């Protein structure tokens, strides 16, 4: 059945349904028969759209597979780049920690040297020079 015919039947069903009123046994039988017509019409609508829905599903499946293939490459590159960034940050953090440690050791060494010099000046009697260095 063609789409135009199905649409005409749908409109006919709508028109007929507007005029239905059940006030007698005969009206009841007509309404039951009309329900059978509606059921048959619904089956025709479902049958009509069955093949297009199947084709659309297959097309969707094929497109999704292509999309996954393209995304896989992007995701792999993204993952590799993020790993490189992480490695770079880790190396920089390690280098920063080393520099801080070296600076702390140099500071400690300088303090000890100044303290030693101040102690020597104090022992030698140069109390002004020893307090200026401390």
Task: Please provide a written account of the structure.
It is a single chain. This protein has 3 helices and no strands. It has helices spanning 3-18, 25-124, 127-133.
Structure, briefly:
92% of the residues lie in helices and 0% in strands. With 134 residues, the protein is mainly α. The protein is rod-shaped and about 130 Å long.
Largest β-sheet summary? none
Overall spatial form:
rod-shaped
Mean pLDDT, rounded to whole units? 90
**Uncertain ranges:** none
Helical coverage, percent range: over 70%
Tell me the radius of gyration. Answer: 45 Å
**Helix-strand category:** mainly alpha
The share of residues in extended strands comes to: under 5%
Give, in order, the helices and strands. Answer: HHH
Task: Please provide the count of β strands.
Answer: 0
Number of helical regions: 3
SSE order and pairing:
Blueprint: H1 3-18, H2 25-124, H3 127-133
Task: Fill in the keyword field for this structure.
mainly alpha
């Amino acid at each position: 059945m063609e789409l135009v015919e199905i649409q005409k039947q749908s409109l006919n069903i709508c028109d007929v349904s507007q005029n239905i009123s059940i006030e007698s046994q005969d009206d009841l039988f007509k309404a039951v028969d009309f329900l059978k017509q509606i059921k048959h019409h619904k089956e025709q609508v479902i049958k009509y759209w069955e093949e297009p829905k199947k084709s659309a599903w297959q097309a969707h499946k094929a497109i999704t597979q292509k999309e996954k293939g393209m995304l896989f490459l992007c995701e792999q590159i993204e993952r590799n780049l993020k790993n490189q960034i992480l490695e770079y940050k880790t190396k920089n953090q390690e280098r920063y920690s080393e520099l801080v440690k070296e600076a702390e050791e140099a500071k400690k060494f300088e303090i000890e040297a100044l303290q030693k010099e101040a102690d020597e000046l104090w022992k030698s009697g140069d109390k002004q020079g020893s307090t200026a260095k401390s």
